Amino acid sequence: MATAVKEKKKVTYAWEGKDKSGNKSKGKIDAENIAMAKAHLRKQGINPKRVAKERSISFLSSKNKPIKPLDIAFFTRQMATMMKSGVPLLQGLEIVANGCEKTKLKELIYEVRNDVNGGTDLSTALKRHPKYFDDLFCSLVEAGEQSGALETMLDRIAEYKEKIESLKAKIKKAMTYPAAVVVVGIAVSAILLVKVVPQFQDIFQSFGADLPAFTLFVIGLSEFAQSYWFFALIGMVAFGFGFSKMMEKSQKFSDGVDRFVLKIPVLGEILQKAAIARFARTLSTTFAAGVPLVTALDSAAGAAGNVVYRTSIIQIRNGVSTGQSLQNAVNMTGVYPVMVTQMIAIGEEAGSLDAMLDKIASFYEEEVDNAVDNLSSLLEPLIMVVLGVLVGGLVIAMYLPIFQLGNVV
How much is the pTM? Predict the structure, then answer.
């Protein structure tokens, strides 16, 4: 009696690769597994670079990624370019939406377009999405609509967003690089303590001699790590979760952290320069757009990013609203360098405050850039030394008894 052969179920795979001409290509193929899918593609003259189940590849695709501030900056830049080229607002929104790779961003722009198509002002349509378009963004767009120079205002907003995001990226680079190296160092040390040291410990037990104090210390650390690593991991996760929740829920705790980070050597100086650059950039953009100075200072306070500078800007706003000059109000805070107050004074006397604030912002942005580069250059050898001492110390502790084998013999 013949036995029926059960056909294996085929799965749809999405693939990306290059054809015979070297051109990039992608598509879908049905196969029993990934190996068979790659074999079928090679028979068709395609060199597959990436093959995965359709669902998993779409999950990794940039289409499903969330909208980031840099995406909003890019959208604004595209709209400014479109409108400067004479493309109507509605058509420009549709063109930009069709060119978006991110599904969520495309949907957002289409929602704005539909609102504008229904007779709503662009600023009002943007205000319906406060998660992506903050009060400053919407206020500047509204000012551009009222002055009849929306394309110019969008260009200014795009430049502002690009510079602010560039500044944020530099700060993130300054903070994440040493943190990442420290995490890697801790992970390597933990692996050595939990996995490697116990192997040496078994060997040492057969020596029949006293072990060096340093080796005993490392073995003690290893035994502690083996017994309590799970609790240590839970503790670190709990600390991180609790810290983030406290930053989110407690304004007093968040303000305390803001004040503390400004006192950290080197890093605090970078953060101070970044806050001054952000203050000057925001005030320059809003003031140049025709926004009243008091209102512009409100926007600058919202974009300060640190409680010390947010408080100082509110103090400046209160001083200006009572008739003080901007230079005197800034000087009274005692937070800003003398150069900043002097340049503001020159800008007020010359009637070119927005241009002077723009120069202050550019100067401090360049200062932040140089400081981050210098920090990276200084940290690299320092971190290598720390890691070398940490990991090298563990290795030396394990080999010290071996070096003393001659005495035992």
Answer: 0.64
